[in-house]
Amino acid sequence: MSTLYNNFSRFMAANVQSDSRCVLALSGGIDSRVLLHLFARYVRENGCPAVVVHVHHGLSPSADQWVDRCRQWCIEEALPFQVEYVVVDKTGESLEAAARRVRYQALQRYIGEGDRLLTGQHRDDQLETFLLALKRGSGPKGLSCMAESMPFGRGRLLRPLLTVSRADIEVYATSFQLTWVEDESNQDTRFDRNFIRHDVVPLLVSRWPDFPQAVQRSAELCASQEALLNELLQDLYLAALQTNHSLSVHHLLTCRESARAQILRMWLHQLGHPMPSRIQLSNIDHQVLQARADANPKLRFGEHEIRRFDGFLFCIPVYPDISDWQCQIKLNQSVELPDGLGTLTLTETSSDAGLNRQCLAEPLRITFNPEGLMASPLGRKGRHKLKKLFQEYRIPSWQRRRIPILMSGKHVVAVANLFVDKHFSGSDCDLIWDTMAEFMSESGQEHRK
């Protein structure tokens, strides 16, 4: 079994810098248990900074016992141990996908600049992933499956056991008399991966013993083809990409449909989203990208939406509706805005672009609902609907109910960081919205070209 450690040690030497901290994801199953044993020896011999993290999903009745056993193993190996408790939202995606998503979100909090996250996937996992991708009809990106090393947060994710078979891992665990936990859900063939593991792979391997190695080669070839394709399209992608992470519709429409699809994949991957299906890409192309010029198209993509505005394509979160939210505000008072939109402060000031005391004649309130409201911005003639003013200010449609509006009775006093109504302009007080980060990053005002 020294061969397995020697291979592990060489992999670590090639992928871990001397000052990199290593974070090991320990589920407690046999794969991560063997990884912990190898890792502990490597840390003793090389002295690299290390921490072990167990993510408690709460999906198994044995979940608390798994925490205790993982903690005990780390005590025995003299490794720091942390537990992350997460809640898995079981709606909108498969339980497997939801658990994986929250698990990696929790682990990412431990990864600083240059750190390495170690996970225990092996060659048989790669085979299962390949067959699942094949079932979905994936292209080269999906069929390239899992990489031994890939960017993750501010560091990298490493899979040191990816070329090792499950059988070799079991032999190692037995030879060192290691114990591990068994997740009862791993036997449930209602889950696609378990069905492939228990019913499909044994049949394939009994007929073709070298099938796992052949799949590994195919995955590597697909990864190589995907990398080459991205390299060839890199200039087109960079030409379309804007500083606010949107894409130029004009640049996209000058490309072939197949090239557009790959650029969209590159874009979504860069933003950290899962790869879209062929149907999703087709819908983005035809329903959003090529919608009529005066349309306000959108397409749901997981917990995000693909939107088009002012000649650019955006991928934005699905925001909660806060248009019914209201709150009073007084002079020299700060109000916490909903949904992480910062604070709004009404403060005394000598600013020439502020408000007069007339606005204080009635109680002031904050709203986010522009429906039916009109205003007379300072420096303009007449009264205009806020909807029209937002269009003129080039505010994306999805942001128009996320900008604080200051009201005095039924009158618009100001729209935060956009304008003051001329009837309330003065130098007695000022309205300060402390953050425009979200608003500016998605507005049409920061395009590179």
Automatic annotation (TrEMBL):
It is an enzyme of class 6 (ligase). It is found in: Cytoplasm. This is tRNA(Ile)-lysidine synthase. The N-terminal region contains the highly conserved SGGXDS motif, predicted to be a P-loop motif involved in ATP binding. Belongs to the tRNA(Ile)-lysidine synthase family. It catalyses: cytidine(34) in tRNA(Ile2) + L-lysine + ATP = lysidine(34) in tRNA(Ile2) + AMP + diphosphate + H(+). ATP binds at S27, G28, G29, I30, D31, S32. The keyword Protein transport does not apply.
